[in-house]
Design a protein that fits this description.
Two copies of one chain form a homodimer. Chain A is mainly alpha-helical. Helix content of chain A is 71%, strand content 0%. Chain A has helices spanning 6-25, 32-39, 43-50, 53-60, 68-71, 78-88, 91-103, 107-128, 134-154, 158-161, 165-180. Chain A starts with 5 loop residues before the first helix and ends in an 11-residue tail after the last helix. In chain A, helix 2 (32-39) packs across helix 3, helix 7 (91-103) crosses helix 8 and helix 8 (107-128) crosses helix 9. The first copy, chain A, has two domains: 6-60, Orthogonal Bundle (Arc Repressor Mutant, subunit A); 68-180, Orthogonal Bundle (Tetracycline Repressor, domain 2), CATH 1.10.357. Chain A contains eleven helices and no strands. At the A-B interface, helix 7, helix 8, helix 9, helix 10 and helix 11 of A face helix 7, helix 8, helix 9, helix 10 and helix 11 of B. The structure holds a DNA duplex. Chains A, B: InterPro entries: Homeodomain-like_sf, HTH-type_TetR-like_transc_reg, HTH_TetR, Tet_transcr_reg_TetR-rel_C_sf, TetR_C_16. Chains A, B: Keywords: DNA-binding. Chains A, B: Residues 31-50 bind DNA. Chains A, B: This is TetR/AcrR family transcriptional regulator. Chains A, B: It holds the Pfam family TetR_C_16.
Chain lengths: 191, 191
Amino acid sequence: MLQTGSSVSTRESIHSAAAQLFRSRGYSRTTVRQIAAEAGTDPALVIRHFKSKELLFLETMHLTLDDEPLLDVPLERLGERLAELLLDLGGSARGVFLALVHGSNEPHIHDRLRDTHEHLFVEPLRRRLTGPDADVRARTAAAVAGGLLYALWVAGDQGLLRMDRAELVSRYGALLQDVLTPRTPEGPRTP
Amino acid sequence: MLQTGSSVSTRESIHSAAAQLFRSRGYSRTTVRQIAAEAGTDPALVIRHFKSKELLFLETMHLTLDDEPLLDVPLERLGERLAELLLDLGGSARGVFLALVHGSNEPHIHDRLRDTHEHLFVEPLRRRLTGPDADVRARTAAAVAGGLLYALWVAGDQGLLRMDRAELVSRYGALLQDVLTPRTPEGPRTP
DNA sequence: AGCCGGAGTCAACATTGTTGACCGAACTTC
DNA sequence: GAAGTTCGGTCAACAATGTTGACTCCGGCT
């Protein structure tokens, strides 16, 4: 490898410019020329460095979550903790999530979203649960979690958006807790 | 209005061709020229009839739901009925839902999705509920319902997709029922 | 007959992602 | 030090996209 001066910084510029634009404007509404302009370089270089706009998107749009709050909390508070985590997911995560959802018309982006859902929500929850239906409960809870983000950010439910954070945490926490550790084992009560 | 022979049928051809293509391939992956070819006409005519690709999309992608199953079921079976309704939503509805979700990067399509979510899920449920927090419960149930479609169709959770329909109905029905008509009024147990 | 309004056709435009040809500089090799 | 190779950068071009304008054509009105 040759000159490390301008090359790495240019690639880095393209990367961060693309990340910011994809987050704020989504996949289809950001153009390669915009990315190049923001990075102060040429559209052709963007493609040269990252092969295609789609690969650049996949390389920049990673959604990560800090597992630990879910792993070190007592099991009976897992629902509440997950609700807090979801509602504290800030601006950057919101942009990445929406970009993935909107872009997932593209097959590769859909794969990325599938993987993200799997090991961002399902896996950590699955690890805390036991019993024969642990997998189903983890997946259901993940679906409920995704449903919250969907309602807030994708569908944009104004009623939920205007709600008090504390009440949302309390309600969704209880709901998730019921899914994760059901109060009654499904069957009819036997007193 | 002049010749009604070829004109209406052409407009109709464009409409149905666009609907089919948008449903199966989404907004960004279907081109105006594809629509024109499928309808056996000229790309320029597509625009002339519907002003723009986006307006054509909005005119064709309507997601409707039969309210009655939700309105005539006894309240204590509303959750189960809603779960059945969601899981029976067939191929055409799936395509429209996904097209709306994927396309909602576009502001007008986002508005359409917001309205659809509101008066497809929230409104019918809201109408069945009473009490001070009826609105919140309806919106939460709608979020859970949207979460199921999100997990199945958008994220593509293989674990849920492979599940038995009856078990999914049973589980999600109970979950939705708990949201709609909570078992305990929120407070801690007093034995 | 003569006009007029709308349907249809064709060519063009700007913008998109992407590619290929060329240039220059820096490092390797003799 | 000279030659060569490899990579970053620039520019022009390509095909495909949504959209527009000019033009034709035809049915129904005055």
